[in-house]
Amino acid sequence: MSRTQSEQLFRRAQKHIPGGVNSPVRAFSGVGGTPVFFERAEGAYLFDEDDNRYTDYVGSWGPMVLGHNAPAVREAVQQAVARGLSFGAPTEVEVEMADLVCEMVPSMDMVRMVNSGTEATMSAIRLARGHTGRDKIIKFEGCYHGHVDSLLVQAGSGALTLGTPGSPGVPAAVTADTLVLPYNDAAAVAEVFAQQGSDIAAVIVEPVAGNMNCVPPTQGFLDTLRAQCSEHGALLIFDEVMTGFRVALGGAQALYGITPDLTTLGKIIGGGMPVGALGGRREIMESLAPLGPVYQAGTLSGNPVAMAAGLATLQALREPGFHDALDAKARRLTEGLSMAARECGIGFTTNQVGGMFGLFFTEQTRISRFSEVMACDKERFQRFFHAMLDRGIYLAPSAFEAGFVSIAHSDEDIDATIKAAREAFAALL
Ligand code: PLP
Predict the structure, then answer these.
(1) φ, ψ for residue 238 (rounded to 5)?
(2) Of the residues 297, 317, 337, which one is the last residue of a structural domain?
(3) Domain containing residue 84
(4) Among 77, 196, 313, 327, which is 20 to 30 Å from 273 by CA?
């Protein structure tokens, strides 16, 4: 498979774009080689600048749950564009979007639209602090909530240490109130609350972690978060930027039956356009400006073209059986890959929740901790990634990202992916 156009474009891109990309993971630093430059996409497929076709399991990192270029979304966008791109004033489509999101996610009485997942989590943290009058935040190792300064934090050594900045440019003072705990460690959460409960404004968590590959919550973990937050007057924030509308119509909170105080959304809610949202209980959301004192704003927030794409996407998801079908596709894929790996004698396991999945090169049968993800064979993943890419299968170019299926992936697409994987696994030996 020739990718000379991508190679040329990548050389050109590096002249005026840092690293040649507008978001770091796209640079392929996690797998080596040259990033693929795409020219168009349709359904389950991406087409690169050399006109190679790939079955896509990245889905623009989550939003494209209907598949690429879905006619209903494209037409809604075209109609919105014809009416004007942005007004900086209220529109009916924002009201429709708010009504629909609050109906689909029952823990939300009110919702505020923003322009990215990062903005959603940043505003949710500010709101939680403003509403509770407390400063400390608990987050979990391996969970990513966007590039918000106070959440861009590495765990210190040991479960109860303060976080340290995860990037130069983040002042230590900004992360001083962020406590980092191991994901799926309910006892560590209870211990911190016992010591500092009255200072904790909020716990923010990916209810299914999707940024350390895909790691579902273990039995009782989310219940403990809910119980501890309620007992100590802290807010529970579910960051459903990735899981929202994907693992179930009502997100992970519907799947696991846990009601958070605040929820952040992104990705699918914009249907491929830049949209994020935060929402939750009325009494908390009323602390936001203009009703309350917690400031939050955005020139392009609730943009009518972006709302049209998101609304058309959410409406399509309500089709009866949509999430069962999505879950079945992801299960067919992960079960098929596991069987192919077993046949080839490769140590390999998978996680899967609804339309998201994770692939792990390991002899372990179950992955539920960040440390276990880190212990997987990254070199094998890199070789597998390139063997799949050369066979027209586009996986996330990092061992630490979840994969996604869309409703446009047919059984034939998935079976062809498993066939390619059988060859790729065999080439690893
Ligand atoms: N929260 C989660 C769980 C995410 O997966 C991401 C992005 O991948 C974000 C927040 C940040 O969203 P964005 O990249 O739109 O700023």
Answers:
(1) -90, 115
(2) 317
(3) 71-317
(4) 327
Whether 330 has a pLDDT exceeding 50, the answer reads: yes
* CA–CA distances in Å: residue 200 to residues 125, 184, 204, 209: 11, 19, 11, 22
Active site residue 267: yes
Is the ipTM higher than 0.90? The answer is yes
Whether residue 80 sits in one domain with residue 102: yes
Which residue among the candidates 48, 56, 239, 413 is catalytic per the annotation? 239
Q: What are the pLDDT digits (tens) for 217-234?
A: 999 999 999 999 999 999
Q: Coil, strand, or helix at residue 55?
A: strand
pTM greater than 0.90 (yes/no): yes
Q: DSSP states of 283-345 as a string?
A: HHHTTBTTTSSB----TTTT-HHHHHHHHHHHHHHTSTTHHHHHHHHHHHHHHHHHHHHHHHT
Find the mean pLDDT for residues 77-90.
Answer: 98
Q: Which of 116-125, 126-135, 167-176, 364-373 has the lowest mean pLDDT?
A: 167-176
Rounded distance between C-alpha atoms, residue 403 and residue 271, angstroms? 17
Distance 114 CA to ligand 1 centre (A): 13
- Considering 286, 317, 348, which residue would you say is the last residue of a domain? 317
Count how many domains the chain has.
2
